[in-house]
Every structure is written in structure tokens, then in C-alpha cells.
Amino acid sequence: MSPSRSYPDSSPDRSPPTRSGSGSWFTVAAMAVHSFTLVPAVYVYLLRPHPGASERDAEPVSTAPQVLLQLRQNTGYMDGHWACGASGHVEAAESALETALRETDEELGIRAEAKDLTALTAMHRTNDLGGAALEQRIDLFFTLRTWTGTPSVREPAKNAGLRWFSLTDLPEAVPPHERHVLDLLAGSLDGGSPVPPVITFGFDEGQDIACYGVALPH
């Protein structure tokens, strides 16, 4: 989470921001006080066809696409849960696409290109409605079906293992907000409604999720 900043006075008698140069911002005379902040994070779900989908004689439990999940450990949040294979906070001066590519490399040891990322949905999430800024999130979800290399555990201190799961047969322990997204994705791929471009979580009754409580290392 970024350190708090102090902003110049935004009272009406202050001059508005000025711009000079070839379309680039050089000097900001005044900035509006930010009354609300969302912590941005990126999730990349690696997808592959079910191994039994092309076997005519086989009768697998499900032929739905599979998603790669990692078993969280020693992170201080949702440990023991199967979560997105590659995810993380957007860093300063980094775009969401850059974050997605960086995380797939750092966490899984694979390489991908921005053109291979498919935007899935953006989730406005609260872990504590009306609570601390730390609990207010904007989660950007992508899917990835093409990459170079073999996914492997690159951060063993935080990742107890990787496993492919059918989208229709997920493990019981999945972070609630991620399960919500994966259920929407499974329904969409099975011929249901498309995943909405923007969704929310934590604002409606029954959408409960643990609070972070304290800022954790990225």
C-alpha cells in the first residue's frame, strides 16, 4: 500500500492545474484532496482445456476448462486457500498489464505477451464496508491461455503448490471473491451469460470475506 501523501490546498480560490509542453504534465499548481482510495491488484488465471475433453472413449467427471491455482501459505492472508496462480498489487509507475506479465514471471516462471491477456472483469471489492482504506479494493482479472514455459512454484515460501482444477469442480477452500469470479467464468464458458465487465463483492448480504487488518508485503 502506498504511503499517505499530503496534497496542496484544494479550496476554490486556488488556481486550477496547468499543463505545458507537448501534451505532458509538467507542473501541477493544485490537486484535489482524495477522499477515497482503492488498492489495485491484478489476477491472472491460466486456463487450459480439460485433458479428457478430446478423448472420445473417456468419461471424465467434467470436461470444463481447467484453471491453475496455488495453495497460499505464510502470507498472513487466506493461507490454506487455493487462489489465483499469479496475482499481485500494481506497483508505482506500472500499468495493470505490466503487473500481470511481471507476476506471471515472478510467481510461475513463464513468459507471456500483453496481447495474450484477455480482460475478464474488474471487481470493486470491500472487505469491510465503510472501514479502513486498506480494505477497499479494485481487482482486475485476466485470463491467459498462451504462454512460454512450464508453470512452476517460484516463491516456495508463499506457495505450497500448484494444481489444475476444473472450473466446475473447484476445491472448497477458495477465497470467496475469487470463487465468485470463477463461477461466473464457468457459467459463461458453458453457454451462460457473459461475465459482466464490472462486478462488486462485499456490498451485498452473504458476500463475506476476511479483512486484511494490517498492510502485508506485496
What are the key terms here?
single chain, 218 residues, alpha+beta, eight-stranded mixed sheet, 2 helices, 8 strands, disordered N terminus
Question: How do you describe this structure in short?
Answer:
With 218 residues, this protein is an alpha+beta fold.
Could you explain how this protein is built, in words?
The chain has 2 helices and 8 strands. By secondary structure, the chain is of the alpha+beta class. Strands 1, 2, 3, 4, 5, 6, 7 and 8 form an 8-stranded mixed beta sheet that branches. The longest helix has 14 residues, at 176-189. The N and C termini lie close together (8 Å). Residues 1-32 have low confidence and may be disordered.
Radius of gyration: 20 Å
Helix count from the secondary structure assignment: 2
Percent of residues in helical segments? Answer: 10-25%
Beta strand %: 25-35%
Average the pLDDT over all residues and give the rounded result.
Answer: 84
User: Strand tally, please?
Assistant: 8
| Helix/sheet category | alpha+beta
Distance between the termini: 8 Å
